[in-house]
Amino acid sequence: MSALSAPHTASPISVWRPIATDTFLVGAPHYPEHVGEDYWERDAERMAAAGFNVTRLAEFAWHILEPRQGVFDFDLFDRAIEGLGRHGVKTILCTPTATPPRWLTVAHPEILRVDVTGRPMSHGTRQHCDTASPVFREHSRRITKAMAEHYRDNPHVVGWQTDNELNTSMPESYSAATLSEFQHFLREKYGSIERLNAVWGGDFWATAYDDFEQIVLPMNFVPAFPSPGHVQDYHRFLAFATARFQHDQVEILRATNPGWFVFHNLGGIRDIDFRGPFSTDLDFAGYDIYPFLYDEFFRQGSPAKAQAIHLDICRGFSGNYIVPEQQSGFGSQPGFCTLTPEPGEMRRMALSSVARGADGLMFFRWRPAHFGAEIYWMGLVDHDDVPRHRYEEARRFAGEMTALKHKILGTHVRMDVGIAGSDFDNQEAHGTYPIGLPSPQDDGIQLYLHCYDRGVACGFIHPEDDLSPLKVLYVPHWVMWKDDWTKRIEAFAEAGGTVVIGARTGTRDENNHVIRETAPGASLTRLTGVVVEDFGRLAAPGAGGLFEVMSRSGGLVQPPNRPAESARRKRRFTLGNHELEAGHFYENLTIVGEGVEVLATWSNRYAEGRPMATSRRVGKGRVVYLGTYLTPELTQVLTDRLFADADVTPLVPDLPEGVEVTMRQNADRRLLFAQNCTNEGQTVAGVAPGRNLLDGEKRHAGTLRLEPYGCAIIEIG
């Protein structure tokens, strides 16, 4: 197995960045401590027979590795690693800090997280300790150092995963340690209490402080709402503390063996500023993918769409990644369970991950546990120790990826349409003052799903990234805006790109203060040629009004049998030959620049005839300003108008429903990935001529037949 690039030689973070490797990592997380040792040799033999080259160990085993403070016992994992290594299966070790042992929480109960009600978290679960705690950080460094030094020269250990899915269970903490560290963070950030008071707006509701020791942690409904600046800085602190906690570990690992690669397996991106310090410590990102779980929780239309959304959002933060945990079967904890992938579907989901940027993948998990809180989280081998269709699908996938690694590695995912994303401050700024509106990410998903259904290459990208491969960029109401971003999107437009700027963009500064000039601010006004004269909220499509929105978040409740006034105040607009209803928000625009074309006007109530959307030619391209939020109907009409001019076309015309297409490419090759996400055969017409790398490199010239859950990788040309 070749080494991956070290951090100091890795290219800067970018959505277009592949992992610097010639090895496609494929395997499964494994927990030898969950079964008797008589299983181990058979497990290693089966992994090798499946074509696996790696496994992941020890993420929840601190109590085994250090049964008493300062007493270390590596024997179990030494023997497991050696047995796997004899069969050619390398090991990724994990720092086991997501599950500290009971002796530690007994000795130091102050390291436990505390929820907003003041209740300390408890042993008997996971992620119950506070990563901001200096005491917990010290013990994290101890176990990391002991493990690193013990395995420093072990030839079977090739890399490390830090912790496990940081912040997925509970990113917030209201402990004494968090408060003290938060106060210190603010002192370092602002220097003087006067500066902090100015930034947080201390003259509103007498929320000013006399010194940093007086500062409290922000809580809602105690009895009202805290300052958005206060809340924003709290979440910035949580992201800082998470990155610092990880850095403690990475620093030790790098110093011990610079040849190891290091990554983290994100289960979400809550209070993690991935484009900030968190990422600079890592060789690449890992994203855990459970399509059926996401679809159950987020109702995104189908497991396939849920998987695509999560992976493409994540890739916007990091570029290519590995999947350390790919759902393999039925998944559950006591309070929920998922549907079960049908035969063929697990491989299809794995290939969808590769299609969207995975340069390595591990199926979760090798075998299910017989005890604990995930006894029905199924793996590749069943409870009765019998490998069935999931094992066979994993074996087939491993063989395919090993054979095709020279084609896949080194490519990035194509995007013709980019949605501005991957910005910690803007997503958090929305959360500090949501007022019932969709987040930037949720609004962008409207456009994303439209493109997904039509086979248009679309994803998420940060404005500081290279925009030149795009044809269209949509900015979904980023309230915090930097003038440098204006320069970048202007250059993109001048070179021929189409920029669409959503309502409310640029209306607050970095301190979460509303700007003191007419929206959207000086630089965006110069670029768009419009200003916002006034604005207001509209009912969400299908919603009754403000009270209904608030009731879903535990606030006020709409009285029964009383229609909301906002439901009656519907706003309509005309775009081309279409009259549509607006949702969520409206802005009335005034043209102040030259060369501005009105694309849409409000068509009812007092604003009838006022501009709602405009377009201005900028160099070879254009900049569109949109004075509302996206709805499915608006997205359809707007893209019909803009995509043709921008030369945005589907990867495959007339894509059948339930078929997903993406493309990975570089300067040398183009690989069209097609996955049938249904249980019925599908015929896909209009496919560019090429060789199907998953079908003996047979040549296809126009029409592709996909079996139920069938997949193809067409090398075009």
TrEMBL record:
One GO cellular component term: beta-galactosidase complex
Name of protein: Beta-galactosidase
Species the sequence originates in: Aureimonas pseudogalii
Ranges where the Beta-galactosidase trimerisation domain occurs: 448-538, 570-648
Class in the EC hierarchy, top level: hydrolase
Span of domain Glycoside hydrolase family 42 N-terminal: 31-402
EC number of the protein: 3.2.1.23
GO molecular function annotations of the record: beta-galactosidase activity; metal ion binding
Alphabetical keyword list: Glycosidase, Hydrolase, Metal-binding, Zinc
Binding site for substrate: 126, 164
InterPro entries on file: Beta_galactosidase_C, Beta_galactosidase_Trimer, Class_I_gatase-like, GH, Glyco_hydro_42, Glyco_hydro_42_N, Glyco_hydro_b
